[in-house]
Amino acid sequence: MAVGTANRFQEFRAELRRSEVRWAYALILPAVLPLLVFTVLPVLGAIGLSFTNFDAFSATMRWTGPSNYGQAFDNELFRITIRNTLQFTVGFVPLSLAVGFTAAMLLNRRIRGISFLRGAYYLPVLTSTIAMGIAWMWLFQPQVGLVSLVLKLMGVQPKDWLNSPFTAMQAVIGVAVWKAFGGTMLIYLAGLQGIPETYYDAAKVDGCGRWQMLRFITFPLLRPVTFYLFIIGMIDSLQVFDLVMIMTEGGPAFRTTTIVHQIYLNAFKFNQMGYASAMAVLLFFAIAILTYFNWKFFSSSLEY
Amino acid sequence: MERTRNLRLPPRQELLFQTLLIAGIALGLVIAALPFLWMAVSSLGTAGLVIRMGFTWDMFNPLNWSLEPYLIAWKMAGLSKYIQTTTIYAVTVTVLATITSSLAGYVFGRLRFPARDFLFGLVLATMMIPGSVTFLPLFILMLRLPLLGGNDILGAGGHGLYNSYAGLILPNMVSAGSIFLFRQFFRTLPKDLEDAARIDGCSEPMIWWRVIMPLSGPVVTVVALFQFQGSWNAFIWPLVMSSSERLYTISVGMYSLAYGSGSLTSMAELFQSVLLAGSVMAVLPILVLFIAFQRKFVQGIALTGLK
Predict the structure, then answer these.
(1) What value of ipTM does the predicted structure carry?
(2) Do the Cβ atoms of B54 and A144 come within 8 Å?
């Protein structure tokens, strides 16, 4: 009798276990299958297409070997694109970190209305890039835009900011920083709140001033956060698209065209799908390398 | 966080510091908010006034405001249609992605089965592949899906799911980041609850729906909010996936308006206001959501470390 019960119990457990495994596969299917089909497969597809001269509309294709990659490196426009993207990165990443950090320092205190203030700083992050790009185009309007009006007060001669090769990129970077610093700020705020108060107390006992505390406690302890934001900022910079499309369409004279903008143009305007795929593959590897650095750094040094 | 108050400088320097601090906070507020205000005021028909007369304070006088640009944007410029399309797209994506991701998060977080870690690693790996890499091959895939949209078995002849809601929505029906978020959260729940349900004969989907989801309100809200916000603002995928205005989302519609594919450019003075009115309408739903759920948004950032 006792043995029978034990057996039945064993059986019940085994059946439960089998059912758990069956259900597990069934329930992840609607998530894992789309990820495979709509994310993994396209990456493999891009790699394949990058060795062809595929034409999506007539669906013809010929194997061309690595010539698309050769074309990229010989191409003047590709060099301009890379230079633009690097310029954007060099401008955007430090600025968004610096502005975000400053905002976090300003708002890292308990005062009335602090969550309203944090919310207001953060709001640009959530809004549509296309809509705010249109708003900023109006702000950059040469004669009567707010930017020109303010700069005129400071004695700067207004110009056609978005159509001048000397200012278009700066304008795009400025708007990108405006749109992103709220996010950087929130992550820095989380970092600041993770620094134990006792460190600052000890520093005060030792007679440290505000600057010294910033220099010797805050900066070093936020280094992992800064590193993370630095890498994420670079990954985002490599992919600027919406803002460039709406504000400048890559112009004037390709002065603000970026990698993703070139992928889009070559694929959908010039019908050069193979060449566009080669650029997408290069972008993929650049992002993969950056992601690897991030992962490597955080799996080795998470603790303070 | 009362660091500044504990640290006493001599009174005059302290006063200076506090003044600078307040000035800094105010400057930040102006920088963040001014573009919105300038956009809103200009959208009320005053952009034409400014173009004609240069900057005048008259643009802030409500007597000079009119809703005409909004009416034109809504009726003539097709905003009503764009917003309808965007709503269908964003709501469907949000519902689908929240369900599929939470199911997968439940399975990865709570169940044991062969190849679990491998499959979860695969999900994590897809997190690093952005849409800007996949949109082109994905477009070709959708265009050439066999047996759909007039395509034959080899995917030739028709246009697959190109220019259809299915093509717009399907690639976004799951989010690897959300799976990760759900898994992390579900792992913190006590195991006893679901074991009790299991002994009582509950199947796994029932446990997910009856036991796990009711305990997960906050994380469901965060995921749904970010899904909605992301798909409301989406640009590149709707741009390449739609060939006609019928399927334009708000971002694509606003882009095509700005670059003059409509009849509106002839309206010169009013055009700028109409364009800005459209932008206000594109931003407004997100603004309302943000005000209603501000805490959730901020929590979400802290939770994920994502921007």
Answers:
(1) 0.89
(2) yes
